Amino acid sequence: MSSKYKYSNSHDLPLRINKEKEIRLSHEEIIRIYKIFKIICEGEKEVECVRQVLSEVSKFDPFATFKFLDSDKKNFLNKNDIQNYLK
Questions:
Q1: Residue 77 to residue 55: CA distance in whole angstroms
Q2: Torsion of CA 53, 54, 58, 63, to 10 degrees
Q3: Quick one: which of 5, 11, 20, 44 is 20 to 30 A from 67 by CA?
Q4: Residue 26: which of 36, 7, 16, 11 has the closest Cα?
Q5: Domain edges within the chain
Q6: Do 17 and 7 meet the contact criterion of CB atoms below 8 Å apart?
Q7: Can you give 25-65 as a three-state secondary structure string?
Q8: Going residue by residue through the chain (87 aa), what tens digit of pLDDT does each one get?
Q9: Rounded Cα gap, residues 61 and 66, in angstroms
Q10: What does the DSSP 8-state code read for residue 77?
Q11: In degrees rounded to 5, what are phi and psi of residue 72?
């Protein structure tokens, strides 16, 4: 069985961005990307746990909290909103 990808060496992994463009990732680059995704996933799990805890608090109102943190009334939050709250 032949692969549709041609490897320049055993450590490269082709990554097709679109039909015209292909890049190759080294083993080290693959490991770095894996570590980034692992950190992101761990953060997402932690956020989900906190979200579940907050959802069980009857007096917690997510929309009221959002409005409180969005002091500039821009209808989104950014790091400055959180930093201002923590001051």
A1: 20
A2: -160
A3: 44
A4: 11
A5: 9-56, 59-87
A6: no
A7: ECHHHHHHHHHHHHHHHHHHHHHHHHHHHHHCCCCCCHHHH
A8: 444 544 444 556 666 666 677 777 888 988 999 999 999 999 999 999 999 999 899 899 999 999 999 988 999 999 999 999 998
A9: 9
A10: -
A11: -85, 0
